[in-house]
Fold this sequence. Notes:
Blueprint: E1 2-8, E2 11-16, H1 19-22, H2 31-38, E3 48-56, E4 61-66, E5 79-80, E6 89-93, E7 102-105, E8 108-111, H3 123-135, E9 143-150, H4 175-186, H5 189-201, E10 204-209, H6 213-230, E11 236-240, H7 243-250, E12 257-261, E13 266-269
Parallel strand pairs: 6-9, 6-10, 10-11
Antiparallel strand pairs: 1-2, 3-4, 3-5, 3-9, 7-8, 11-12, 12-13
Amino acid sequence: xxxxxxxxxxxxxxxxxxxxxxxxxxxxxxxxxxxxxxxxxxxxxxxxxxxxxxxxxxxxxxxxxxxxxxxxxxxxxxxxxxxxxxxxxxxxxxxxxxxxxxxxxxxxxxxxxxxxxxxxxxxxxxxxxxxxxxxxxxxxxxxxxxxxxxxxxxxxxxxxxxxxxxxxxxxxxxxxxxxxxxxxxxxxxxxxxxxxxxxxxxxxxxxxxxxxxxxxxxxxxxxxxxxxxxxxxxxxxxxxxxxxxxxxxxxxxxxxxxxxxxxxxxxxxx
Length: 270
């Protein structure tokens, strides 16, 4: 299945997707057109600034303070990530939006913001409840940092909201679809360049790679290859579990967290 991906307004590049794999979602004849529609610029989920991370007591005390206003449709007090320009930030990276990150209005996908899930295993809830615990292990200097949440591929790679979708949740049958579409899109030069430009604009002191486990190593490789050569100040890189489900179920025994030393790809437990 070849679709035309809108990499920038009115600029399209061809993307080959595995038709047999995508039959998991739908076998409808019009499905390629629906997928292409879901990957247009209007369906891009924006990066957001959700909290200010207040660090004190030599990095041991971390408090997430929500913004006092919201200017993006969201379950949280989100503002555009660009509002944090000029401030050293903490960049929390996921992989791609899923069903909670969209509304469907008159048959169209309407993007909201990253990490919207408020349920017991939702990514948004995981960050809200346990983000302070994860960030307190990063040895941050005392100060105030915008917490930016971003997706390297800001489109719904799981395609579960594309009608007439069959699965209602990201079960084991749908994960291969998400991973395949993500890899095909992230393999495009314009998508990688866009993600890198966004990362640089946030001046991160820390990049926390919370991508899903199936894709995490690929994203770490990309970040390691780019961080040293494209950033004036080399941010620290960490890997952590995805906040959806994992943070909510693992916090009692300790959420796995690793400091990544890019030279040699050494992962040091924190």
